[in-house]
Amino acid sequence: MSYPSNMKKILFIILLIGLLLGAVLFYLNDNLDHVVRTFIVKKVSEATNVEVNLDSVSIYLKEGRAEMHGFVLGNPQPFNKDYAFKFKSAKITLNTKSLFKDTIIINKVLLEGAQIYYEKNQNQSNFTALTKAIQKQDKVNEAADQEALPSTQNDKSSLDKKFIIKKIEFTETLVELAIPGLAKQSISLKIPDIKLERIGEPEGGVPPEELSKLIIMSIEKQLTNSSELLSITKGVDKALRSVEKETKNLEKGTKEIKRIESQIKKIKDLKDLF
Question: pTM, whole model, 2 decimals?
Answer without folding.
Answer: 0.72
